[in-house]
Task: inverse folding
C-alpha cells in the first residue's frame, strides 16, 4: 500500500474552547496547533480561521496571516484552506482564501443539513462556480462529500469536464443530517469512486478512529482533528490535535502503513514537489 496521508483539521468553524480548551482561535494558537500536528505526522493542515474571539471568518487577511505563521513553523506542510467557511456565508466570501494561491482547498459537493435550522447550501450551480474559480487558480480541490449523492454529483460534473483530474475525495461521515459512519457506508462510498481516484475519510465524533482504521486498512487516507472530534476516547477530551494525529499513526503502524511526508503526499496527489 502507498504511504498514509494524514490531514489534520485543527479548528473548524463550529467547535469552541468551551467544547475543548485546545481549540485554536488566534493566529499564534493556530500555528502552534498546526506545528504539533505536523510533528506528530500530519502532512496536510485543513484550515479554517477565526477571529480572536473565536467567531469564524473567511477574511483573506486573516488567512494570509495564519498561513504565513504556519509555514514559518512547518515550511513544507501542505495548507488546505476551507472554502466551506461557515453556514450563511456567501459564495464569494467563502472563496476568499483561494486568492492566496494555496496548493489545495476544499470543494463541497452538495448541500446537507447541519442540525436544527442550519442548512449548508451547495447547489449544483454553486459547485460549478466554485470549481471554475478553483481551477482558474491552478488549485487541487479536495472533493468533500457528505454522502453518496455528493459522490454522484462529482461524477456527473466530471463527465462534463467541469471537475477534472486528479480526483481526490474526502468522505465526511457522521454529521447530523449526513451519512452515518458505519463500515457499510464507508465501503459503499469507497467502491463508488473511480479506481484511479484517491480518498481520505473524516469520521465525526465517535466515528473518527473507527473510520480511520477502515481507511488505513483499505489503502485510503485519513483526516482527524478537533474540527471533527474533541475526544481521544469516550469521555476523555483530547489534549490538542497532536493526540488525535498520534492515535492515527499508532493505528497505521498496526497495519504496516508508513506515514507520508508532505512531499510524499504531493506525489500521491499529483501536486508539484
Result:
Amino acid at each position: 500500500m502507498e504511504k498514509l496521508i494524514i490531514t489534520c483539521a485543527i479548528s473548524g468553524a463550529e467547535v469552541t474552547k468551551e467544547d475543548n480548551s485546545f481549540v485554536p482561535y488566534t493566529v499564534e494558537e493556530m500555528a502552534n496547533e498546526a506545528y504539533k500536528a505536523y510533528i506528530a505526522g500530519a502532512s496536510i493542515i485543513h484550515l479554517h480561521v477565526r477571529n480572536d474571539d473565536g467567531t469564524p471568518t473567511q477574511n483573506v487577511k486573516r488567512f494570509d496571516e495564519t498561513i504565513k505563521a504556519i509555514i514559518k513553523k512547518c515550511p513544507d506542510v501542505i495548507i488546505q484552506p476551507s472554502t466551506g467557511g461557515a453556514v450563511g456565508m456567501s459564495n464569494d466570501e467563502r472563496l476568499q482564501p483561494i486568492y492566496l494561491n494555496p496548493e489545495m482547498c476544499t470543494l463541497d459537493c452538495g448541500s446537507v443539513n447541519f442540525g436544527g435550522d442550519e442548512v449548508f447550501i451547495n447547489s449544483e450551480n454553486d459547485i460549478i462556480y466554485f470549481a471554475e474559480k478553483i481551477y482558474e487558480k491552478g488549485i487541487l480541490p479536495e472533493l468533500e462529500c457528505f454522502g453518496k449523492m455528493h459522490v454522484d454529483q462529482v461524477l456527473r460534473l466530471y463527465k462534463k469536464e467541469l471537475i477534472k483530474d486528479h480526483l481526490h475525495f474526502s468522505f465526511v461521515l457522521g454529521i447530523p443530517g449526513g451519512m452515518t459512519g458505519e463500515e457499510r457506508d464507508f465501503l459503499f462510498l469507497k467502491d463508488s469512486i473511480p479506481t484511479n481516484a484517491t480518498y481520505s475519510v473524516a469520521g465525526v465524533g465517535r466515528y473518527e478512529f473507527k473510520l480511520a482504521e477502515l481507511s488505513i486498512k483499505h489503502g485510503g487516507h485519513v483526516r482527524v482533528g478537533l474540527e471533527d472530534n474533541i475526544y481521544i476516547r469516550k469521555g476523555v477530551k483530547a489534549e490538542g490535535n497532536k493526540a488525535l494525529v498520534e492515535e492515527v499513526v499508532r493505528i497505521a503502524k498496526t497495519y504496516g502503513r508508513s506515514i507520508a511526508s508532505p512531499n510524499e503526499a504531493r506525489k500521491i496527489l499529483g501536486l508539484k514537489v
Summary: The chain has one domain: 6-269. The chain has a mean pLDDT of 97.
